[in-house]
Design brief:
The structure is a single chain. This protein is mostly helical and about 250 residues long. The protein has twelve helices and two strands. α1 crosses α10, α3 crosses α9 and α7 packs across α8. It starts with a helix and ends in a 12-residue tail after the last helix.
């Protein structure tokens, strides 16, 4: 359930030019009085404002679309859609494991991708998981972490939620590395992108409702869980460490 919660609050990110403009607005929202400052969150005022904006957009657009998709699409079909996009993601995880010099994990994800593509009808069936071949999603931000780049301050991005400076810097590489982003014609690419994100949001509808119900301070819970999941120390003992950015 926790993995689904963090998937809900981070479905990727926004262009760097938008991020730069938004950082200027840091401090425009009030931080709860008496709450201890998080050492990795110097822009908390801005981040809280952006999270509120993202929640408004989600409630108005993304959540209703995802709810309708989940209502009208049979579960087996939705599972196939999820498997297909996850299989494409395994290819990029394999590339990142290669960049990290982790041969065994790269090989496992190559086997996952080829097995599901060939025997799983292009990835619609997840044969590799049934064969107990492990999946561990990787991206270029984690590759930078592996080689010692520290995460930098926490940053909530427009529309797409939690990130860090390091993960934001890595995004252009992740965009170029996702093979479906290079499909033509553009109409097909856009349709696949819309289906992908609608499916991802539909998969975490229950998790987002649970988060809303249990969190006294939803912002802090999301931030702390995200930073824990992206902490370089959890990925590689030689990678960067969390620092205090408000000294």
């Amino acid at each position: 359930m926790l993995k689904k919660i963090i998937s809900f609050v981070r479905l990727k990110t926004a262009p760097a030019c938008v991020i730069g403009a938004c950082v200027v607005l840091a401090g425009c929202a009030a931080v709860p009085e008496g709450q201890a400052r998080h050492p990795q969150d110097p822009w908390e005022g801005y981040n809280r404002s952006m999270m509120a904006f993202n929640d408004t957009v989600d409630d108005a657009v993304f959540k209703p679309v995802a709810t309708a998709y989940k209502t009208v699409t049979p579960q087996p079909m939705r599972t196939g859609v999820t498997n297909f996009f996850s299989n494409v993601g395994d290819l990029w995880s394999m590339v990142n494991y290669v960049l990290q010099g982790r041969g065994e994990q790269a090989y496992n994800h190559m086997v996952r991708f080829t097995t599901n593509t060939v025997f799983g009808l292009g990835g619609v069936l997840d044969i590799a998981t049934e064969a107990q071949i492990a999946r561990e999603k990787q991206d270029f931000g984690l590759t930078l972490a592996h080689w010692g780049m520290k995460p930098g301050p926490y940053l909530v991005l427009p529309f797409f939620g939690p990130s860090t400076v390091r993960d934001t810097v890595a995004l252009p590489v992740d965009w170029r590395g996702y093979v479906l982003d290079d499909i033509y014609p553009v109409s097909v690419r856009n349709s696949l992108a819309a289906l992908r994100w609608t499916d991802k949001r539909a998969n975490v509808l229950d998790a987002s409702d649970t988060l809303d119900a249990v969190a006294l301070d939803r912002y802090s819970l999301v931030r702390d869980f995200y930073l824990q999941r992206r902490d370089p120390r959890a990925q590689d003992e030689n990678a960067g460490q969390v620092e205090d950015f408000d000294n």
